[in-house]
Amino acid sequence: MTKLLSSTFTALLFFFSIIVQSQSFKTASEYLDFVGKEQEAVTKNMWKYTKAVAHSKSDRTIDAKRTVLVKSVEKAIDKIEKADGFDGDTYKNQVLNYMRLSESLLKLDYAKIIDLKEVAEQSYDLMEAYILAQQMADKKMEEAYIEYDSHFKLFAANHHINIIENESDLVNKMKISNAVFKHYNALHLIHFKVSINEVYLWEAIEKQDVNAIQQNANALSESAKEGLKILKNVDLYKTDTSLVKATQEAFEFYIEEADNQIPKITEFLIMNEDFETIKTTLDKTPERKRTKEQIDTYNNKIKDINKAINIYNKTNEGLNKDRQKAINNLNNAKENFLSKHIPND
Predict the structure, then answer these.
(1) Is residue 48 situated within a structural domain?
(2) Residue 294's closest CA among 279, 304, 307, 276?
(3) For the chain, what is the domain count?
(4) pTM
(5) Residues 89, 271: Cα–Cα separation, whole Å
(6) Could you read off the pLDDT of 287-304 as tens digits, one per residue?
(7) How many CB atoms are located within 10 Å of the residue 239 CB?
């Protein structure tokens, strides 16, 4: 199962990139500094969570990082709630509203995303719902920040505070992560839309349903060819074509499988069904009543079926080998893509 990634909460971090100078807690700028310092733990835990999403292969580790992040937000909320506001509680409440929304998103929306991930591999609709849930949660987080930022700037302007905005190294890392995840997930969804047809194809093969095999083989071939067209117009991340090329190779395998190899499997299944019919008829016929034609037909079919079995086995062996190669190449490309573009420090 390939690892799926969600984009991260860039909006949270712009808030922490504000640099203010203060000496006394009795000033507005010192209050802004206090709020910012309470968020430092949140910022650090945010990056730990992002790195886990990008580099960890364990869903348990990723969710553990989310839990730590939630606790850091809860702690910051608690401290800001207990502290006095400045010039009334209007701005304090605006900050708390923003943070509580962030807390709610982490506890509910992003937790729901983890649940969706558990079933996402079952169908394209579920996979699409999983990715859309990520996008919707991120949009809510971004919109919450935009609203907060307007309150922040108004508070600073009302108290004649000169704000120096400086995107920290961490903020830049988060922005990079968002762009990387966007490309990663786009390619994953394109691939999944094709690969799910192969799952259905092999389910039909397991059932030896020839009609369903042919239908799903056609669907796999058509979707893979359409996928190749889509790949030509995919937006790249920093001209990196590694995921596109690995996905393209996977699609080429699916086309070869569906168009040239599955017919061999279908031919064997049809031949085997005919053989079983002949064998059943012969078995039901008493030996003294069996004709020479029946026996010759049965013996010839045995030769044909043995030859077909060899072709079937070789076809399966070749498909398994080529499929594993394509999947390994794609998974390695994904892992290398993340390692190359998302910082791990």
Answers:
(1) yes
(2) 279
(3) 2
(4) 0.73
(5) 81
(6) 888 888 888 888 888 888
(7) 5
